[in-house]
């Protein structure tokens, strides 16, 4: 199987397709020379032979496709041709997944070449089909090196079509799908980089292909796509114009022929979020937040329309804040989205994205636990209680005064919850000597470990804080010598620890209406404050009264919803009436308010993963 | 401590040319690395600092390993040290991907031996162990760093003193002059001159220095009561109005 596909790939004029990737794209063609030069076209005879074999194999494969799948593909194709968003959504969110469960849970969908006759060889549809095909391979099966190269090639074809056609393309796709296209593109990039960096387990064929990989899944090529979509759609200009309150006509003028089309607008928007993610994966936390400078983080922002995007945005923003040592901002970010996920959960547990979202949520609970140890806050009791329940063991270890106990706990949670970091560049596959040096290296370089080390350095600088705090809480003033005695330390090192504690209880944080995500003001994050007057330590403690409002407001709103629901229900029909008529009408009208009334007031307005048509 | 990050995001000394590189897509163009490197050396000479522009250099090195210039990296890290307790140093290290040892440099790469040194200096600053910072910094082991790098960086030692000053200012109302001297690596008349430049007052006995009050060295016990804002109640009230 893989041999046959290898031949297919070699027979196509791959090199041209790949070099076409970033025609006139945003950030230029840096370092893209000399790729795929050495893919030799196969000998003619062999080529003909292969083509014939392929033809026969394709016919056999075509015959094996179940009729229902064929009908689905024809129908899906028609929906795309008609730009019928509702039909596309049904096919995309429901049909594809149902048929996957039924026929392709453990195998690939039929290859695009095989189903081509069903769709009149419509190349655009086949690109979209391959997008789904490879996504399925990545999520359900193990992609081999051919899959990885081909999925890159197909992404490039798709983006080429979108960006380099004559003018905007007349295609409409559901927002969910548009997000998934960007999300999957970055996922496959990250998956490739991680796989590529593991040099020990590569076969000879793989080594050869990787040595010649050129721009395949290079950082530049991926960034090029994202920046091009942003520029083509003029999405940043669009957001700014919206914020300035410009009229729709003025905005249309500003964003031009591409930006007015929902397809480009949303792709541009999602590309900003995609950039946020790529920059985090590459360890550039400031740039990650900088590209988001026009995006407002609130519940009305367009990214909230696709739940997966909404969740990802807050996860990556929160993580950036951790690495910028802005724990209060990180906590706020996680609390916002975790509460949102809790509220949405009841409606969406069956969504096909639910697993992914709940995994991200679990990671954010872990990150919240870390932040809350480093910068305790009482921002949200609801989330803290869940975290206390879930990570009680790690929480007590992390707050331990014994760093041999604390550090491994931080390490465990960080490695579990951090993004899948990657190296920007491949190992030197094209230089066997350098590669063998690297092969011998122990331990193998691991970007996640590097970031962990930096994070732990911050943690270690804060290590004396819990001990100091427990003593300071007992006094309003005490002699520095006495405190040093308690700590079993000399006075000078105690004073240095106190200064470090002061630093640790200050943090840059957004306090209100800052424009960019990087903006912020220094705030105090601790309820315990102190000052040293030569040899005396003075301590003042602020007490924060218990917060009741949130709880009462939530419950009042809930009570109102229940009350509305009850009031909208019909009175129960009297049981002694024998007639059929009232009973049916009672059940009918009982069902209606439960679904409509229950959701309408105060209920979330965003569907899990966008539109729920025909679920 | 700076009360806002805006001068960090965009220092007033940043030119339009650099601003375009930092904020636009031209930051990815390897042929611009020279402009940014020149700007770094300008910062080294004239006591300016622009973290985001320096991160842009490291980004170009990350994507184009052939551009890598270890001297530039060391200078960037030295500059970032002086920003402590802000996380600049770690943000720079985050962008230094693992390098394969066989890079074709004319001279041996100084970074692998200097990186642990700089990292330990940074840790000392983070932990406010200023006397140990100075003794480490002046030790024979660090001669390479001093003679080849920090000597070129105008005002490096004063910038480190600023780090100590920020920490002292936040934690003390009065501090013994001997102690402060050990944090600033200054004694006698030098210390007095430095202290008076800061506007701090030396007591009559010259043993104790008073530090003017600032938001961080004033303490007060407070009770924070919950304050409920109208927008929180909008749903409840509007519902009541409808009912």
Automatic annotation (TrEMBL), chain A:
**Subunit annotation:** Component of the eukaryotic translation initiation factor 3 (eIF-3) complex.
- PCI domain residues are 333-546
Q: In which residue ranges is the amino acid composition biased (Polar residues)?
A: 576-588
Q: Where in the cell is it found?
A: Cytoplasm
Assign the protein's first listed, main location to one coarse class. cytoplasm
GO BP annotation list: formation of cytoplasmic translation initiation complex
What is the name of the protein in this document? Eukaryotic translation initiation factor 3 subunit L
Q: Which HAMAP family match?
A: eIF3l (MF_03011)
Membrane-spanning intervals of the chain? none
Question: Which Pfam family, just one, is annotated for this protein?
Answer: Paf67
Q: Which family is annotated? A: Belongs to the eIF-3 subunit L family.
UniProtKB/TrEMBL annotation, chain B:
Q: Where are the transmembrane segments?
A: none
Name the source's superkingdom. Answer: Eukaryota
One term of GO molecular function: ribosome binding
Q: Where in the cell is it found?
A: Cytoplasm
Q: Name one Pfam family in it.
A: CSN8_PSD8_EIF3K
Q: Which residues form a coiled coil?
A: none
Q: Where is the CSN8/PSMD8/EIF3K domain?
A: 69-210
**Record-level GO cellular component terms:** eukaryotic 43S preinitiation complex; eukaryotic 48S preinitiation complex; eukaryotic translation initiation factor 3 complex
Q: Does the keyword rRNA-binding apply?
A: no
The keyword Protein biosynthesis is assigned to this record: yes
Tell me where it mainly resides: cytoplasm
Quaternary structure and interacting proteins, as annotated: Component of the eukaryotic translation initiation factor 3 (eIF-3) complex.
Quote the function comment for this protein: Component of the eukaryotic translation initiation factor 3 (eIF-3) complex, which is involved in protein synthesis of a specialized repertoire of mRNAs and, together with other initiation factors, stimulates binding of mRNA and methionyl-tRNAi to the 40S ribosome. The eIF-3 complex specifically targets and initiates translation of a subset of mRNAs involved in cell proliferation.
Q: Which family does it belong to?
A: Belongs to the eIF-3 subunit K family.
What this protein is called in its record is Eukaryotic translation initiation factor 3 subunit K
């Amino acid at each position: 199987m893989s041999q046959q596909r290898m031949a297919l790939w070699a027979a196509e004029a791959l090199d041209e397709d790949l070099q076409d990737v970033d025609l006139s794209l945003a950030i230029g063609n840096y370092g893209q020379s000399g790729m795929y030069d050495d893919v030799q076209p196969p000998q003619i005879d062999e080529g003909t032979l292969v083509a014939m074999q392929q033809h026969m194999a394709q016919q056999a494969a075509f015959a094996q496709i179940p009729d229902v799948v064929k009908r689905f593909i024809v129908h899906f194709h028609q929906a795309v041709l008609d730009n019928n968003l509702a039909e596309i959504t049904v096919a995309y969110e429901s049909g594809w997944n149902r048929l996957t469960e039924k026929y392709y849970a453990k195998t690939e969908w039929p290859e695009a070449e095989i189903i081509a006759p069903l769709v009149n060889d419509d190349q655009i549809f086949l690109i979209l089909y391959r997008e789904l095909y490879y996504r399925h391979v990545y999520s359900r099966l193990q992609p081999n090196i051919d899959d990885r190269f081909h999925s890159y090639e197909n992404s490039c074809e798709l983006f080429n079509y979108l960006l380099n056609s004559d003018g905007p393309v007349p295609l409409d796709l559901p927002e969910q799908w548009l997000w998934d296209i960007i999300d999957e593109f970055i996922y496959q990039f990250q998956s490739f980089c991680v796989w590529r960096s593991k040099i020990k387990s590569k076969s000879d064929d793989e080594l050869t292909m990787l040595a010649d990989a050129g721009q395949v899944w290079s950082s530049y090529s991926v960034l090029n796509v994202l920046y091009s979509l942003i520029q083509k759609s003029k999405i940043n200009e669009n957001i700014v114009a919206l914020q300035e309150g410009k009229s729709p006509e003025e905005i249309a003028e500003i964003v031009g022929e591409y930006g007015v089309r929902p397809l480009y607008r949303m792709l541009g928007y999602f590309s900003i979020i995609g950039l946020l993610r790529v920059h985090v994966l590459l360890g550039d936390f400031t740039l990650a937040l900088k590209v988001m400078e026009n995006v407002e983080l609130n519940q009305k922002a367009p990214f909230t329309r696709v739940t997966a995007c909404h969740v990802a945005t807050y996860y990556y923003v929160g993580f950036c804040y951790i690495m910028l040592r802005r724990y209060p901002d990180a906590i706020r970010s996680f609390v916002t989205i975790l509460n949102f996920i809790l509220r949405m959960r009841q409606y969406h547990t069956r969504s096909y994205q639910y697993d992914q979202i709940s995994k991200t949520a679990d990671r954010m609970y872990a990150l919240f636990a870390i932040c809350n140890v480093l910068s305790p806050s009482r921002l949200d009791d609801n989330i803290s209680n869940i975290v206390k329940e879930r990570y009680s063991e790690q929480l007590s270890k992390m707050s331990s005064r014994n760093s041999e106990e604390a550090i491994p706990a931080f390490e465990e949670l960080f490695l579990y919850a951090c993004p899948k970091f990657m190296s920007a560049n491949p190992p030197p596959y094209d230089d066997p000597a350098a590669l063998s040096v690297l092969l011998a290296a122990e331990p193998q370089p691991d970007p996640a470990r590097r970031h962990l080390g930096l994070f732990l350095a911050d943690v270690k600088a804060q290590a004396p804080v819990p001990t100091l705090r427990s003593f300071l809480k007992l006094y309003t003033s005490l002699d520095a010598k006495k405190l040093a005695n308690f700590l079993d330390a000399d006075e000078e090192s105690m004073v240095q620890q106190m200064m470090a504690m002061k630093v640790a209880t200050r943090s840059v944080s957004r306090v209100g209406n800052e424009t960019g995500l990087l903006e912020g003001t220094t705030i105090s994050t601790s309820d315990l404050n102190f000052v040293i007057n030569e040899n005396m330590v003075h301590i003042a403690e602020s007490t924060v009264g218990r917060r009741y409002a949130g709880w009462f407001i939530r419950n009042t709103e809930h009570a109102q919803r229940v009350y509305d629901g009850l009031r909208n229900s019909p009175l129960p029909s009297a049981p002694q009436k024998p007639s059929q008529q009232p009973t049916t009408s009672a059940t009918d009208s009982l069902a209606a308010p439960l679904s409509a009334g229950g959701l309408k007031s105060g209920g979330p307005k965003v569907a899990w993963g966008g539109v729920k048509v025909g679920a | 401590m700076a009360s806002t990050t805006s001068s960090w995001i965009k220092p007033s000394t940043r030119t339009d040319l650099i601003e375009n590189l930092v904020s636009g897509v031209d930051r990815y163009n390897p042929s611009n690395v020279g402009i940014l490197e020149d700007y770094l050396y300008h910062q080294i000479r004239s006591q300016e600092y622009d973290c985001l522009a320096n991160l842009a250099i490291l980004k170009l090195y990350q994507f184009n390993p052939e551009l890598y210039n270890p001297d530039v990296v060391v200078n960037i890290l030295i500059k970032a040290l002086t920003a402590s307790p802000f996380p600049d140093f770690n943000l720079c290290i985050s962008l230094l991907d693992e390098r394969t040892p066989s890079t074709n440099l004319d001279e041996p790469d100084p970074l692998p031996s200097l990186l642990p040194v700089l990292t330990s200096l940074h840790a000392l600053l983070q932990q406010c162990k200023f006397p140990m910072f100075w003794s480490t910094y002046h030790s024979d082991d660090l001669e390479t760093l001093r003679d080849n790098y920090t000597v070129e960086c105008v005002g490096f030692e004063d910038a480190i003193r600023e780090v100590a000053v920020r920490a002292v200012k936040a934690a003390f109302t009065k501090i013994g002059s001997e102690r402060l001297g050990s944090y600033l690596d200054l004694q006698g008349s030098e210390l007095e001159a430095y202290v008076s430049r800061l506007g701090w007052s030396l007591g009559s006995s010259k043993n104790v220095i008073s530090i003017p009050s600032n938001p961080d060295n004033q303490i007060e016990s407070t009770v924070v009561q919950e304050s409920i804002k109208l927008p929180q109640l909008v749903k409840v009230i509007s519902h009541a109005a409808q009912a």
